[in-house]
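Aim 2, interim progress: modelling of the zinc ion-bound target.
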Amino acid sequence: MQNAFDLFQSIVLMQGTQCARRIHLENQLRKDLKGHPFSVAGLQSARESLRRDLDQLKVISTDDESRAVLALRELERANVAAERDREALEKLTSFTPTQSKLTQIRDDVADFYLTLQIDVTEVPVRVVERLPEPYASKGFSALTADMGDKRKHGIEPGIYFDESAISPFLADYFIAHEIIHVWLGFRSPDESCTLLEEGLAELLSIFGYVARTFGLAAAENLYKIFRLNSNAATRFESYVDGIRQALFTAESLGAVGQLIENARLGRPQLNAAFDRSLTSTHTESKIDGNPTQEHTGLETGAKVARSLLSSFPRSLVVSAPAFIVAELAHDGMTFRELAHASKLESDLVSSAVAELDARALVTLRRDGQVVSRNLAREHLERGHLRFDFRPVGSLG
Ligand SMILES: [Zn+2]
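Predicted structure of the complex, ligand included:
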């Protein structure tokens, strides 16, 4: 059963957030949102009840309370976004976790990929009550089975979703990403998926399909929070490394379309194109041809991906109290003034400033009681400074 939490999660991924780790935000709000319906009214009622609780706070005296304040703010942003962009909202709220809806998304994805001459019209997408074994017992919420799974476990190739764990927008991304593995798996059933293939799937799904369907800004926001967040588990870093390799190879070949041409020949040829790019000291002769409109869109997406990978700082993440202080501090402000402006208790202000100081995000006057310069401001203005729910003062 979809509820306000599913809607919140999708809006945050599409509209962006100042929180660097969606899991932290979700853990903070899941319980509060679950009891409200899957609609704008549901988001509003959840926001009202949380706001009532927080309005009673005279002083923010703990890490937990500052997290709650920032989480409420993200919920409010999601509300504003939902009210502003009715068309995007309609796309999200028309979602149902049913077989027919997932098949419809598969058809949309397949139509898009056909414009790139990638034929995935026959890939089955199945909604199941329980994922096939041995995957159900591993706690996965979705899986892609290939010919190897058929041989080993008797599972028909295709994409499987656990019906209790599907959410709008993410389902679109997931199908568009996984379907590329199935496509390559049919061509090269005996070869395994490499980092480069992960990167190709990321590039085509996020900066191709998601960008075309939900807009380039939504693709960018999804990418920032989903992949460029900091301190994610190492296994997720492989997706970022993979898209770098895919973009690098595409650049060396002259176009993303050329990368697709190599993939069409199978996994060994895709990987060989990467190896050639590594050893060539100059760009290979580019095959011009006339890029179709879809290819032009994909090249634009690839450009955005390159610029995000080069310019978006993954390390600029601070604790919730430090984020609150960074937003308010102006040059020459005393700690006492900061405590007053932020409602943070003075001990929390000191820890937050110490954290920013250790990260070279503020400089302090010699007596240590005044912020002489707030260097975090420029990062905030660019939307680069973010928070997660690490303990205040933590530098990890
Ligand atoms: Zn993948």
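The beta strands are 125-128, 142-145, 158-162, 317-318, 333-334, 362-364, 370-374, 386-387. The chain is about 60% helix and 5% strand.
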